[in-house]
Amino acid sequence: MKQVMQKAQELADAVVASDVYRKMKALEEAMQEDPEAAEAVNQMMRKRQRVEDLLTEKGMDPEELKRANLEMVQAEKEMNANPRVMELKAARKEFSAMMDNVNRVLRLVITGEIREDDFQGGCGGNCNGCNGCG
After folding, report:
1. What's the predicted TM-score (pTM) here?
2. How much of the chain, in percent, has pLDDT values that exceed 70?
3. I need a surface site. Which of 28, 76, 82, 111 has the fewest CB within 10 A?
């Protein structure tokens, strides 16, 4: 068990040291330091919270919920149009793909099985000669 936990720590260290992870974290910081991007995200979160609050109220007014939902959709569009947010979303997608590939490799080694959806991301699980995961 100790060896497994040690290897898990090594894997975690490798993930944190990866260019993909470092890029994502740098973009998260840059977005938070960008007043427009940070406000767009905060606005979207406030609008989403308002919709969630309305959904839990007894005797909720459907028209008010409709207005709040439209405001949330508009805030989401504005947030997603922000260049910093767009960059961060792309970096998070890249990180997620890397982690999916790590999980595919683990599943293949542990179970010997390859699922059909393992091929959706362009990785067949065989890392011989592959430089795609970085």
Report:
1. 0.74
2. 86
3. 111
